[in-house]
Design brief:
This protein is of the alpha/beta class. The protein has a single domain, classed as Rossmann fold, CATH 3.40.50. It is about 40% helix and about 15% strand. The chain contains five helices and five strands; from the N terminus they run βαβααβαβαβ. Strand 1, helix 1 and strand 2 form a beta-alpha-beta unit. The chain is globular and about 30 Å long.
Length: about 120
């Protein structure tokens, strides 16, 4: 299973669910780096140094970093979803179907909600 690193803005209940699914997930609090306001470049460098794909909700900045520095251990950029179990399940399906995370940018999107057409 993939080794993952969740940055500071990533929901801890998703980390817990990924661990329950068998993933080795390290979070920023466990590294002693919480509250240090590391720049995104340093966060990605740390994850890469630990040979872990980065889990983040900070999509825009990490999309840019992926283009600038494609030599990393993977970036898993997610849209926020309050259904943490489902978010972890979508991450699991995507990561499981990827032969390697190295240098990859994976996008995990929240499903679009459809509103039924209401007739007057």
């Amino acid at each position: 299973m993939a080794r993952l690193y969740s940055n500071e803005n990533f929901p801890f209940p998703v980390v817990e669910e990924l661990r329950r699914l068998g993933y080795d997930v390290l979070n920023v609090l466990e590294t002693g780096h919480a509250g240090q306001a590391w720049p995104d470049e340093k966060v990605l460098a740390f994850a890469t140094g630990e040979q872990r794909a980065l889990l983040t909700l900070n999509r825009k900045h990490f999309f840019r970093l992926h283009r600038l520095k494609p030599a990393h251990s993977g970036i898993i950029a997610c849209t926020f979803d309050v259904n943490f179990v489902q978010l972890a399940a979508r991450i699991n399906v995507t990561v499981s179907s990827s032969p390697s995370l190295s240098g990859q940018l994976l996008r995990i999107n929240r499903p679009q909600l459809t509103t039924p057409f209401l007739q007057p």
